[in-house]
Amino acid sequence: MNDKDINTLFKKFNFACADKKTEEITLEYVKKLFIENKSPLTIKEYLRTISHFLSFLKKLFGDEVSINTLKNLQSTDFTLFFSHYSGKRNEEESEKERMLVSFYYFNNKKTTNILPQHKSFFSKTETKNLINDIENFLKGEIISGKKIYEKFGNISTSLRKFEIANIIKRDTFKPKKNRSLARAQSVLRNYFKFIVNEYKWENHAYLDIVSTKYSKEIYDKVFTEEDIIQFISYFDPELSHTVNNYHVNKDWFKWQHKRDIAIIYFLYSSGMRVSELLGLKYENYPFQDKIKIKGKGNKYRYIAILPIVKKKIKDYMETLINSEDVKIDNNHNLFLKKSYNKLKPLTSRDVQRVIKTFRDIYPFSLPSSTTPHSFRHSFATHLMQNGLDIRKIQELLGHKSLNTTQGYLNLSDEFLKQQYDEIQS
Fold it and tell me: What per-residue confidence (pLDDT) applies to 89?
């Protein structure tokens, strides 16, 4: 993607709340994300969150967001944003506290819902004057309760009555789950880390952003597409940008490592269970474009074998045979290990150890519950994100029930949830 494409994507989001310098540094950050091979879909989500945040700051402080605004943010400003962004309210807040953490806009001078106990309040001249003053102050914009407090003092009780009467409204986000909030926190930490490094700021308040604990559903088991590409690229010594890096280990050219790389490619590209993969025999090699396998409950299904998988299996097998000077017959398992100078079938526990070893030495972020099964979860989720029908995914995974397939998908995205709900209805 070139600079023109990046600028086109950037302009889809409203940064009118920020000054030119802030907009420029944000654009530089977006270019960095492209260099890191983040997908356009991911970058859109980053831009959406950043746009929300800068808009929030404009409403909070009442001024265009500048670099100086970002530099002088306090921990409480971040806390207030995440409280607002989550769409959840603290029921124990006092009227004043509620006013200070809310955002208001003028709706209609004509009252439509005056409670009987509020009639005398709205009949007073000072109330009518206050309504006029608030309308003039808000000027059709969304303004923070903090700015209203600075102008009018503590009028929280009056604001609450105006809200009930539909004269003013509070600006709110749709309530979000904890994992969505955690994602927003991660985006802003990354964004501010970039800006802080660019301007050499010290002890910035972004360091106080605390991650929200989200429920452990399927979210923490699924790679993003760009993260799994980076993960595979890191451990595959054949990839040019990896070979030229210092982290390549000479042992990575041995058959054992080539076997491990082939397994990861195979698991992710096919969605196979580890047990199904380890059940393959040498007689299955060399592979056709698709093969028939036996899954749980003796249920058969077809899986596709991609050219890259065929290449990695071929590389592993040739290196194994040349290194060990052995003859492998059709009854041998495809994936082998050497134990006490004998070739033996690789076990599920062995594959778990491989992934744990990779996870321990990998210098970048991974799903918090990265296991061999993560590749099956990621296979299913990425197919659905790219538009494949969920029933086809069910068939590829070998599931009897659609509900089981749903359990393999990260349905945090509203589009995915909608697709699943349409199939279920």
Answer: 59
Q: Give the active site residue among 189, 362, 373, 420.
A: 373
Task: Give dist(CA 405, CA 212) in Å, integer.
Answer: 27
Mean pLDDT (whole number) for 138-150: 87
Distances (CA, A) of 199 to 2, 25, 57, 390: 26, 10, 20, 47
What is the number of other CB atoms lying within 10 angstroms of the CB of residue 383? 18
What per-residue confidence (pLDDT) applies to 67? 96
pTM value is: 0.49
Q: Which of 273, 312, 377, 382 is the catalytic position? A: 273
Q: Please say if 376 is a catalytic residue.
A: yes
Calculate ∠ Cα 55-56-61, nearest 5°.
105
Q: Is 373 known to be catalytic?
A: yes
Separation of alpha carbons 57 and 214, rounded Å: 25
Consecutive H or E run containing 345? strand 342-345
For residue 70, is pLDDT > 50? Answer: yes
Cβ(25)–Cβ(198) under 8 Å?
yes
Known catalytic residue at 399: yes
Tell me which of 46, 234, 316, 408 is the catalytic residue: 408
User: Which position among 59, 84, 258, 399 bears the catalytic label?
Assistant: 399
Q: Which of 104-118, 140-154, 205-219 has the weakest average pLDDT?
A: 205-219
Active-site residue identified among 119, 254, 292, 296: 296
User: Could you confirm whether 189 is annotated as catalytic?
Assistant: no
Q: Rounded to an integer, what distance in angstroms lies between the CA atom of residue 248 and that of residue 417?
A: 41
Which has the closest alpha carbon to 368: 184, 189, 185, 218? 218
